[in-house]
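Worked example 3 (structure in, sequence out).
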């Protein structure tokens, strides 16, 4: 069976600047590398629950696998909504994702009317599908309600609403990201596959360290090397047919296409993909008990080993995951208060302005100190008043202006001086710090 073990940290998202369905001249079938947007990774690093439970793992007082199972969806069916997209697009996504709804498992999605799948509304949805972020990525399991609000996508299919891939590539990407949303991780990091021994590492470092990604070595290692296992983790044999396995270019491997880890692309669920879903989402009353068991063990470890304040943080998070509270996204956290949120808009509802906004988001995401980086679907209010280029708007009298100046400098370093700082003066923008991308 594949390594679709439910783990606390998983990689998601894609190489900035290259849609996951794009093919390069030497990488037919290449998916791109998925990684979380930097703002989400920073939120995880600042998450008190994650910090405390990881300390319990490091001290040997808690096995990592119990943290993993605590994030399984206990409330079924899983409510899904869409931030836009045509009816035909939403129908196609629903039809494809429904392959995970195995007859002999408890997995069921609530898409509303499947002939006109629900748009996101004021009611809480567990999985929220959007298209406005760069690349294709999904938060893992109940992380979908921890690290993104109800006004943000938890599963991103970049530009599917503008230029969706066709045929088998559409199917593969939708199944892969919904697999993450159910809690599955990447097969190439399964230690049983030993894929890191197969890689031509100089080629990998060169490829990912160059444009458009410019990844440092440590980021390549984090996303490409096998995941270390803790005592008690349940592993499964490597599955080269899994839909969760990347289709890397043959040049990534010392043996090329002959490598045991190479695949030209898996477009459907393998036999072992289905077996893992049945195991973690069994039919009947046993399904929510898998998550509850992990939650109880975490609580017991915290009770015996951590101070009261940290126990309260753990109890609050687990209660939110367990109870399905409609307002639980308001209580999840805490995250560091010194992170600055940035809202990015296109001034005009045009493809050129939207592309400029997405490119700006990719650059800003690399800046330390940025929290939520929200790429808005609506045009910037009154955006026609700005000059063409990137307009960074902040109140001169607020602390955020220092971050705004740093953003301007970073954007200008990548965009030949087309970014400028604009004083909000309390009225131009209702957001503390925003960027308007104008043609």
């Amino acid at each position: 069976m594949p390594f679709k073990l439910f783990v606390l940290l998983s990689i998601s998202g894609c190489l900035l600047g290259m849609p996951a369905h794009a093919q390069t001249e030497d990488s037919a079938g290449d998916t791109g590398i998925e990684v979380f947007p930097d703002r989400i990774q920073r939120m995880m690093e600042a998450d008190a629950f994650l910090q405390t439970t990881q300390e319990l793992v490091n001290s040997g007082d808690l096995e990592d696998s119990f943290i993993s199972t605590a994030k399984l969806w206990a409330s079924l069916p899983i409510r899904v909504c869409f931030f836009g997209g045509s009816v035909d697009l939403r129908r196609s996504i629903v039809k494809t994702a429904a392959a995970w709804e195995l007859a002999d498992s408890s997995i069921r999605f609530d898409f509303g009317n499947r002939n006109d799948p629900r748009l996101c509304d004021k009611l809480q949805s567990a999985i929220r599908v959007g298209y406005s972020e760069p690349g294709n990525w999904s938060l893992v399991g109940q992380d979908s309600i921890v690290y993104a609000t109800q006004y943000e996508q938890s599963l991103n299919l970049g530009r599917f609403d503008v230029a969706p891939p066709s045929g088998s590539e559409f199917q593969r990407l939708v199944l892969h990201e919904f697999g993450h949303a159910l809690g599955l991780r990447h097969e190439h990091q399964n230690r049983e596959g030993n894929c890191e021994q197969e890689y031509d590492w100089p080629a990998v470092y060169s490829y990912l360290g160059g444009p458009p990604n410019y990844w440092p070595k440590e980021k390549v290692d984090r996303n490409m090397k096998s995941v270390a296992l803790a005592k008690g983790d349940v592993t499964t044999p490597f599955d080269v047919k899994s839909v969760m396995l990347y289709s890397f270019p043959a040049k990534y491997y010392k043996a090329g296409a002959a490598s045991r880890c190479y695949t030209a692309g898996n477009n459907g669920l393998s036999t072992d993909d289905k077996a893992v879903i049945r195991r973690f989402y069994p039919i009947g009353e046993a399904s929510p008990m898998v998550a509850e068991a992990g939650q109880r063990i975490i609580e017991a470890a915290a009770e015996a080993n951590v101070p009261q304040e940290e126990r309260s943080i753990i109890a609050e998070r687990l209660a939110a995951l367990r109870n399905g509270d409609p307002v639980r996204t308001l209580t999840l956290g805490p995250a560091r208060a010194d992170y600055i949120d940035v809202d990015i808009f296109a001034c005009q509802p045009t493809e050129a302005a939207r592309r400029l906004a997405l490119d700006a988001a990719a650059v800003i995401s690399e800046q330390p100190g940025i929290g939520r980086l929200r790429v808005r679907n609506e045009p910037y209010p009154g955006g026609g008043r700005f000059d063409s280029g990137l307009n960074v708007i902040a109140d001169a009298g607020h602390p955020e202006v220092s971050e705004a100046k740093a953003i301007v400098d970073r954007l200008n370093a990548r965009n030949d001086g087309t970014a400028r700082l604009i004083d909000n003066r309390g009225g131009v923008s209702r957001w503390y710090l925003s960027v308007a991308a104008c043609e």
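Notes: The chain is about 35% helix and 10% strand. The radius of gyration is 22 Å.
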